[in-house]
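Dear colleague,

Following up on yesterday's call, I've attached the two folding results inline so they're easy to grep. Please treat them as preliminary; we haven't cross-checked anything against experimental data yet. The first protein's sequence and structure tokens come first.
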Amino acid sequence: MSLMNDKAKNIRLLILDVDGILTTGIVYYISNGSDMRGFNLHDGLGIKLLQKTGVKVAVISAKNSEAVARRLAELKVEHIYLGQEEKLEAYQALKQKLALSDEQIAYMGDDLPDLPVLKRVGFSITVPQAPAIIQQHVDLTTKNKGGKGAVREICEFIMQAQDSYQTVIQSYLA
């Protein structure tokens, strides 16, 4: 696991996919034409804690959803790329905008549209329900499923590798 810790130590940006990562991957369509997704509150707090340590969080998703945009705004995620069919283009733009190298970026995705980015970043992560082809091309598969705490798991993993976890949770322990 030390190789994973070494990769996580360098991370300055965590990029997340939405469906299957921040959610279970199930989308409910409502009769008025909108959609509905559920988000895990533990994942949300993990994102907030990671941001407190100075690691930026971004989202790149093929879908464009008002529910997703609202949740990301609540979490104060600055870099949001929704409706991105070609995720690699959004990744390259974000990398350039933040002046980061591939080694400083982690990406968490779960399906074929994520594969080009997963193969490029310094630390690639997926969830247990991802297809085998995805799991074969990542550095780490989480224990928790997408929408069920997988993002929190990775946020804590990065903070622990960077020795910032105890500092960021100190206010809760006081």
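Below is the second protein, in the same order (sequence, then structure):
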Amino acid sequence: MSKLVTVNTVSQLAFLPNVFPVNCYLVEEQDGLTLIDTGMSFSAKGILQTAERLGQPITRIVLTHAHLDHVGGLDLLKEALPDVPVYISRRDALLLEGDLSLLPEEPNTPIRGSVPTKVKTRADVLLQDGDHVGSLLAIAVPGHTPGSMAFLDTRNRILIAGDAFQTRGGIAVSGKVKPWFPFPALATWCKTEAIESARKLIELQPALLAVGHGPMLEQPIDAIRRAIMEAEAAPSLVQH
């Protein structure tokens, strides 16, 4: 079961939207579609069918981070689209390879969540903060994972934030447990880094917030501000 919602240049493809929503995004560019995240392995067929329905080829695959619910469809998509380049942050490229070790400068907190151990595909392009992928500005947002990235469509200020926020169960900064959907918080590496990243993203003044789990949120600034305050004030199961 999936659901497609399009706003301006961005289409959200939500798998299992009423149970455990896992979102992928297709961003329209002049040369085709940029796919952001690949969902689970069962998502690959639906992603390809949706691209066909939108009438454009997928020309690049971009990953917000390396948890399995965001990279699970990668191998199957790469089999179908062998010439399409894959982008991920330089930092989370290590997680994509199954390497859970921390860098010396990082908080000494174990990396959480479903890090892949059997994904064969490796990234073609390693992203850093400030890089551009078509019309998208890449923004480093460590917290959920050490190398999480968000992507701002510079044409319309739509922010595709991965798991830096969730909207399922109520908007929350990564690491803030929402009882109706606690899973992003429980898979978050470092709460303090996540809050700093949320502050960084609100400064971009997004017109729409699109996340990995939950519906898109228009005019999200006030809601993001409240979510940051809640994350700062609330105890959490996540350390740091």
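For the second protein, one point worth flagging: The longest helix spans residues 221-233.

Best wishes,
A.L.
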